[in-house]
Amino acid sequence: MVIKKLHEAGLRSEHAYTAGLASIGLSVAVWLASAKGESAGVDRADRWGIFVGEWAPTFFGLGLALAQYED
């Protein structure tokens, strides 16, 4: 039902896959920015990188669901 609504709104599997790849790159960028820009240390940078990095599997799963609906 949710996938159908997203599909009807114009979201395609390619969009979700692109968002997944972008979130991987963003994860690295956030980690680097946090490691260099904050004095909290590498632990905090690791947490930021992991937080953003966890978005990728969600987007890839959404892409798979949309791909099955598109067939």
Task: State the gist of this model.
It is built from 4 helices and no strands.
The helix count comes to 4
Structural class, please? mainly alpha
Spatial shape = elongated
**SSE pattern, N- to C-terminal:** HHHH
Number of strands: 0
C-alpha end-to-end distance: 16 Å
Describe what this molecule looks like in 3D.
It is a single chain. The chain is mainly α. It has one domain (14-70). It has four helices and no strands. Helix 2 runs antiparallel to helix 4. The longest helix has 25 residues, at 13-37. The radius of gyration is 15 Å and the shape is elongated. The two termini are 16 Å apart. The model has no long low-confidence stretch (mean pLDDT 87).
Write the layout of secondary structure elements.
Blueprint lengths: L1 H7 L4 H25 L4 H12 L1 H16 L1
What are the key terms here?
single chain; about 70 residues; mainly alpha; 4 helices; transmembrane; membrane
